[in-house]
Amino acid sequence: MSNVEQRLAEIGRTVPDVVPPVAAYIPAVRSGSYIYTSGQLPMVAGALTGTGKVGAEVTAEDAKELAATCAINAIAAVKSVIGDLDKVVRVVKVVGFVASDPSFTGQPGVINGASELLKQAFGDAGVHARSAVGVAVLPLDAPVEVEIIVEVAD
Amino acid sequence: MSNVEQRLAEIGRTVPDVVPPVAAYIPAVRSGSYIYTSGQLPMVAGALTGTGKVGAEVTAEDAKELAATCAINAIAAVKSVIGDLDKVVRVVKVVGFVASDPSFTGQPGVINGASELLKQAFGDAGVHARSAVGVAVLPLDAPVEVEIIVEVAD
Amino acid sequence: MSNVEQRLAEIGRTVPDVVPPVAAYIPAVRSGSYIYTSGQLPMVAGALTGTGKVGAEVTAEDAKELAATCAINAIAAVKSVIGDLDKVVRVVKVVGFVASDPSFTGQPGVINGASELLKQAFGDAGVHARSAVGVAVLPLDAPVEVEIIVEVAD
């Protein structure tokens, strides 16, 4: 087990297997020293763990936990490409999309759920640049979607 | 004609010329082995082929075809930088923005229009990581906007 | 002072200091020859210079100036990583998010505020690929958020 997965196990998190989408896209692509993940929804065992707009049907606190689930799924997508997560040398960039009621302006607090989990998983290498935005709606009415770019060792 | 354009011709698609925007940005930039395109709207011969929000004025089926047009325009933007599309070694990343009624949650099906076209054009090299999100509104009231990152041979 | 900052000074713009967010993310990350910035809001001296949705509470003209402020903050984020802004060899990509009333379709004109400032700061190296989209809402009810990717000299 990688050090990354050991650190996650200590906080009760497991990196799931990835079920590749049946489509002309895949969970993650490696190009050179970089892995780009697809946008990850808060799926657990193939089902969304919440739906709705944050600030309306979903609270900011619940959405933060959903963002952590998105981040775990992004880590799983990275693992599907490199196998050993300890090859990640840096989480470079995170974009977090929050399906938001137009009155909800707490997107940074929601996406902190993903950012904090990446820090817990990768330590200093998990500290990244980030954008958080509030969108109208996400696939399957998911409240949060997170994509990441990581740099990996050759 | 590149193999990419021959494959597109077989499915009745033509890569158009690019009219560079009169502004401080351009359709695509090459940096190292990568080309980043600007967000592409479903323009044909300089005019939008549809307007409105998907799930309201625009059906998911029509939006999927508009996403394919966005992808063709992204390919044209790449061609404007490298000339020979057979130099593309991988479509790395696609982001698809769908102007969505807040009740419409089928963004993945819409952006499949772009993903499938990229697969048809580039074969296995066209299989990419992808994010699809539903936004409030897009430039000129376009229903779809697609940007891509491709890796090219040196 | 860098040439970049001299050019900005000539148009009355100053690159501010960066206050790193107290969170598991930072204003910008360098990886290889690239710097990715976090999404930048139109903050001046720690306070937003405007709030609300463009096309409703905020005019397109005011939003364009806010986008320029976002771009200045993105330049500051880059500077926080490399120190000397003259090491920037290319602004590769800009993504501009505009918090938009669903009826407002002038996102490109708003984000021109950022694009034009980057051209003024970096000259031809400031000409980039770009996406502009209209989102439901942004952090702290900011009207505009801008992220950039720049290539830097080794």
Structure description:
- With 154 residues, chain A is of the alpha+beta class.
- The first copy, chain A, has one domain: 60s Ribosomal Protein L30, Chain: A, CATH 3.30.1330.40.
- The first copy, chain A, has three helices and seven strands.
- In chain A, the strands form two sheets. A five-stranded mixed beta sheet of chain A has the order 1-2-7-5-6, covered by helices on one side. A two-stranded antiparallel ribbon of chain A has the order 3-4.
- In chain A, a hairpin with a 2-residue loop joins strand 3 and strand 4.
- In chain A, helix 1 crosses helix 3 and helix 2 runs parallel beside helix 3.
- The mean pLDDT of chain A is 95.
- The interface between A and B is medium-sized, with 26 and 33 residues.
The helix tally of chain A amounts to 3
Q: State the end-to-end distance of chain A.
A: 20 Å
Number of strands of chain A: 7
What general outline of chain A do the C-alpha atoms trace? globular
Structural class of chain A: alpha+beta
- Amount of beta strand of chain A: 25-35%
| CATH architecture type of chain A | 2-Layer Sandwich
| Gyration radius over CA of chain A | 15 Å
Instruction: Catalogue the unreliable spans of chain A.
Output: none
Strand order of the largest sheet of chain A: 1-2-7-5-6
Write down the secondary-structure element order of chain A.
Answer: HEEEEHEHEE
Largest sheet of chain A: 5 strands, mixed
Q: What name goes with the CATH superfamily of chain A?
A: RutC-like
Concise summary:
The first copy, chain A, has helices at residues 3-10, 60-82, 107-122; strands spanning 28-31, 34-37, 43-44, 47-48, 88-99, 129-135, 144-152. With 154 residues, chain A is α+β, with helices and mostly antiparallel strands. Chain A has a 5-stranded mixed β-sheet with strand order 1-2-7-5-6, covered by helices on one side. In chain A, strands 3-4 form a two-stranded antiparallel ribbon.
